[in-house]
Amino acid sequence: MPNIISIKNLSKTYASGFRALKGINLDIKRGEIFALLGPNGAGKTTLIGITCGILQPTGGSVTVDGHDIINDFRAARSLIGLVPQELHTDAFESVWATVNFSRGLFNKPKNPAYVEKILRSLSLWDKKDSRIMTLSGGMKRRVLIAKALSHEPQVLFLDEPTAGVDVELRKDMWQVVRELRDAGVTIILTTHYIEEAQDMADRVGIINKGEIILVEEKAELMHKLGKKHLTLYLQQKLDVLPPALAAHALTLSPDGTELIFSYDTQAERTGVTRMLAAVGDAGIRFKDLQTQQSSLEDIFVGLVSDRS
Amino acid sequence: MNFRAIQAIYYFEMSRTARTIWQSIVSPVLSTSLYFVVFGAAIGSRITEIEGIAYGAFIVPGLIMLTLLTQSTMNASFGIYFPRFTGTIYEILSAPISGIEIACGYVGAAATKSIILGLIILATSWIFVPLHIAHPFWMLTYLVLTAVTFSLLGFIIGIWAEGFEQLQIIPLLIITPLTFLGGTFYSIGVLPPFWQKIALFNPVVYLISGFRWSFFEVADVGHGISIAMTLLFLVICLAAVWWIFRTGYKLKK
Are both A186 and A203 inside the same structural domain? Predict the structure, then answer.
């Protein structure tokens, strides 16, 4: 897949001297859902702000479908829809007026049928004449999404779209995102909810302290780092691992009360049955057991804490 | 040019005006009418004619200018400051629209509103005093040029301001005094010679003088100088707006 966004050596230093981005290189493929993860203050919003034209870069370049965001800003920005993190809305405007206003700003002719389609897909149609100030937070979020989609963008930035949004709306929203992806729209989202990236993304990028520390296919990442651990809570403390169990991938916890077995869920034979039989043969009794899969969250926390 | 974007901003601003009709149209018209009642009818009846013009009529161009200057500045500054304050400016900045186009939308709407106000006040003044407009073309030219220039100034203030107080400071502390001292209620000729010279540093003197000339062919300074000064001020404001968008001053961090 060719790249739709290409970020080269992008840096940003704010007037305060804070270096928000330190030479970012990142390519976004056409048609993918890319999840950008990172702790607060990592530079996610700065990266999006520069790409969309809200912030000025200190150095480096960004192109959107081959158009430079500064020299060819009209072509670049026409392709992008942005849903900001904060709920910035025109309180006194109606939903219908504000979505059509956005469409006009992006130089698109009026198209009531298309705007109606967007509002219906976001369950906003029956609110179209309501003033935005009368809407709930979740509804305002939908309005911002409708505004971002009003000009039929090819790239959609969702900056923490599900912050403060209830489960029902979150489901609806992801349904809309999937439909957009199926229609060929490239989606870049930032989120704190790692499960969302895990569910939705094709690729995952992790940013920390203004640097991209990892970009990987999500499936690959999960596979590479996705080990499973089976913990046996022992009835009686062990001082050492019995030699009969040495052939199995078992480790004894430092306090001697747990046996931990690591295995690869993708493997043809995980060795769980044989290990449990061997433990039984060795006369070890356990009171409970638990399995744990390393999630994107573990991977993320591991990576971020390694670098800090 | 992204004409649809200019149109979108223009309509957005005009619908804001329509929504706040009491504040934006009715209240300035009422306060100007009060000036007519107090200075024109009540006090003015005891003032002799100024340069052959009844005092009530003499102050009409000055009062229209007073409204034009304050309303243009207030409107345009609020128009651009409010999206900065609420954060909705993000959308304007991320849209495929140039700085000049953004300014056209906001300034165009603010100027339109002031011109409408100016014309309403002119019509209202006809109720109070008999009026004759000697040069309607020049009257309209001054009206439009002044509305546009001061809307540009307001736009600059709206971008510069860091709070609602700063937003009000320039209109209240600079523009209103300059207008009152610029000959709204009197001819510069009545001042002592020294203060007449000082008054010539007040740009509003040229606006009021030119505007009054278009009504009564009576002026404190030559009509040519008035038009030249008005255009000069327009060019200065345009240059400032151009610089703001070139550098992203206060708009883009």
Answer: yes
308 residues of chain A, pLDDT tens digit each: 589 999 999 999 999 999 999 999 999 999 999 999 888 888 999 999 999 999 999 999 999 999 999 999 999 999 999 999 888 988 889 999 999 999 999 999 999 999 999 999 888 999 999 999 999 888 899 999 999 999 999 999 999 887 767 787 788 888 888 899 999 999 999 876 777 777 889 999 988 889 998 898 888 877 766 678 889 999 988 888 888 888 888 888 888 899 888 887 767 788 888 888 888 888 888 899 998 876 666 767 777 776 55
Residue of chain A with shortest Cα separation from B97? A74
DSSP state of B204: H
The answer for B 72-101 residues in CB contact with A (under 8 A) is 83, 86-88, 90-98
CB atoms A77 and B96 under 8 Å: yes
Residues 6+ apart with CB under 8 A from A238: A252, A256, A259, A284
Counted across chains A and B, CB pairs separated by less than 8 A come out at 81
Hey, is the C-beta of B246 within 8 angstroms of any chain A C-beta? no
Can you list the positions of beta strands (E) in chain A? Answer: 3-13, 19-29, 33-37, 59-64, 67-68, 80-83, 155-159, 186-190, 203-208, 211-217, 228-234, 250-252, 258-263, 286-293
* β partners of residue B27: none
Do B94 and A107 make contact, defined as CB atoms within 8 angstroms?
no
Same domain, A172 and A265: no
Instruction: Specify the amino acid at residue B230.
Output: T
Domain extent at residue A302: 227-307
Name the residue among A96, A91, A85 with its Cα closest to residue A52: A85
Q: Are residues A46 and A145 in the same domain?
A: yes
| Residue B77 to chain A, least CA–CA distance (Å) | 17
Q: How far is B7 from chain A (nearest CA, A)?
A: 8
Which residue is closest to B253 within chain A, CA to CA? A55
- Distance (Å) from the C-alpha of residue A67 to the closest C-alpha of chain B? 12
